[in-house]
Amino acid sequence: MDKGFQALYFLILCLFCIQDFHSQNQKPFSGELTYSIERVDKKDSVKAEMIIYARDSLIRVVNFNSETGKQELIKHLRFGKSYLLIDTEKQKFAIRTNEHLQKDTTTYTFKKSLSFKKVGGIRARKFKVKQLEIKNEQAFFVHMKISAKYANTFTSLPGLPVIYFIPSENGLHKYSLKSIKYSEPPLQLFTFGKEYKIVTFEEFSEEFSRLYESGQ
User: What digits encode the pLDDT tens for the residues 1-36?
Assistant: First the structure.
């Protein structure tokens, strides 16, 4: 075995050890995460909240908004399936999405800080995050013992973001963890009933347009 190959082998071994150590620190999470959502670039009267239910690789994200109502997303990470649940007056739909495959929808870089604080009852480390869509750097806080995959965003971070900012066409919104509950939610929470029709986005658009145009 030549020296070049030995060095490469040692580097690969070190990478695997680091990944294994990281995965050991981040055990599967089961429970409930509740986030408050507020617009920070401009004050408005919209009240919003997000609740994430998790049971290992099963995730249900429920968004409440005083203007748009409730939106729900179910993700089965292990089985590679995700569904957006939509209720209309005539039909309930479970729209197949690629949420389980999506990585970050925003481009960003980050670096850790030496600061810590408690957010929602858990210890979090400060990270300085620079998003491509935003001029200024933001202060995120990350809980290192839970994977970022449960937050459904900023999945490249080395832990669960408990304070973070998301830009959109409706402004800049701050997400703050209000509480964390360790429990084992019932499996029924990550399923949907037979009254839901499973469709693709294209099929949903066609059916919704047909219902609207027919005046049913």
Answer: 454 434 433 333 333 333 333 434 678 999 999 999
CB-neighbour burial class of residue 155 (10 A; exposed 0-12, middle 13-18, buried 19+): middle
Taking the C-alpha atoms of residue 192 and residue 115, their distance in angstroms, rounded to an integer, is 42
* Contact criterion met (CB below 8 Å) for 69 and 195: no
Quote the distance between the C-alpha of residue 9 and its chain's center: 35
DSSP string for 64-86: EETTTEEEEEEEETTTTEEEEEE
- 175 close to 52: Cβ distance less than 8 angstroms: no
Query: How is residue 160 written in tokens?
Result: 């669960």
User: What pLDDT is stored for residue 105 in this prediction?
Assistant: 61
CA 177 to chain CA centroid, Å, is 13
Cα distance between residue 115 and residue 124, in whole Å: 9
Phi and psi torsions of 151, nearest 5°: -85, -15
DSSP state of 158: S
Which 3 state secondary structure label does DSSP give 118?
strand
pLDDT tens readout for residues 56-111 = 999 999 999 988 889 999 999 888 889 999 988 888 999 998 754 555 666 899 99
